């Protein structure tokens, strides 16, 4: 179904750790308007789309959003690698570190874990497309 090329479309090369910034960026991974919700939104809504071209577009967009997870994950990983205990404490990264160390885990910046309530699929193409516009507009 998909062909994975085993490389990032946009390589990430962060040289300085910054756990405070990682705490904000993690929301783009698993927060309410993050890539995980976006990918599930489009890939779930495609089934109710009555138009083949539109269904294909939703599949393409959902697949692209999955690719964004890899980029965001690489950013968070590089921002949190090789942290000292002092950096963890000074940045406020401690609560995340206690639960996940430096693993990539889908959550919002406030610590709320990702769940399926982050996206909607109503089965009505117009309603679903409006939901997509609202969700994607929130990240612009």
Q: What can you see in these coordinates?
A:
Helix 1 runs antiparallel to helix 3 and helix 2 runs antiparallel to helix 6. The model has no long low-confidence stretch (mean pLDDT 90). The protein is mainly alpha-helical. The radius of gyration is 17 Å and the shape is elongated. The protein has six helices and no strands.
Overall 3D shape: elongated
Could you give a short account of the major beta sheet? Answer: none
* Helicity, as a percent range: 55-70%
Kindly, what is the distance between the CA atoms of the first and last residues, rounded to a whole number of angstroms?
A: 30 Å
Number of helices: 6
The SSE order reads HHHHHH
The portion of residues forming beta strands comes to under 5%
Backbone structural class: mainly alpha
Average residue-wise pLDDT: 90
* Low-confidence regions: none
- What is the count of β-strands? 0
Q: Rg to the nearest angstrom?
A: 17 Å
Features:
6 helices; 140 residues; 56% helix; mainly alpha; elongated
Layout: helices, strands, pairs:
Layout: H1 19-30, H2 35-45, H3 52-80, H4 85-91, H5 94-100, H6 125-137
Helix pairs in contact: 1-3, 2-3, 2-6
How is this structure best summarized?
With 140 residues, the protein is an all-alpha fold.
């Amino acid at each position: 179904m998909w062909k994975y090329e085993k490389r990032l479309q946009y390589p990430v090369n962060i040289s300085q750790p910054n756990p405070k910034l990682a705490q904000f960026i993690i929301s783009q991974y698993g927060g309410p308007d993050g890539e995980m919700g976006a990918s599930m939104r489009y890939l779930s809504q495609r089934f109710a789309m009555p138009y083949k071209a539109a269904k294909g577009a939703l599949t393409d967009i959902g697949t692209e959003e999955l690719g964004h997870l890899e980029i965001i994950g690489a950013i968070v990983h590089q921002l949190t690698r090789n942290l000292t205990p002092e950096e963890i404490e000074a940045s406020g990264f401690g609560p995340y570190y206690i639960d996940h160390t430096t693993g990539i885990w889908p959550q919002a910046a406030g610590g709320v874990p990702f769940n399926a309530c982050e996206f909607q699929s109503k089965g009505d193409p117009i309603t679903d497309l409006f939901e997509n516009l609202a969700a994607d507009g929130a990240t612009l």
